[in-house]
Amino acid sequence: VQLVESGGGLVQPGGSLRLSCAASGFSLTSSAMRWYRQAPGKGLELVATISAGGNTYYVDSVKGRFTISRDNAKNTVYLQMNTLKPEDTAVYYCNRLRSWGQGTQVTVSS
Question: So what's the pLDDT on residue 53?
Fold first, then answer.
């Protein structure tokens, strides 16, 4: 099992980014996939989940701004992040069960 994130970067407040998590070694429809984030000096926070059946969950702070989705043909999970705020600054991690990606840095700053 391997998870590889990409798509992070520096963006101004109000901007958008799309994170990708390329998965290998399993099918995305076999289990839930999650995005977590860790802000500087803070603990790990669950941001969004997409279940095996395609149901989605979001932490309150990102509802209406972030969208988790997946492309089964590409075996890739996405996190579309709109209207970004400075408090969204964090390292974002893709997760499936006990497997984690290496993380991708998102910095929201003017």
Answer: 92
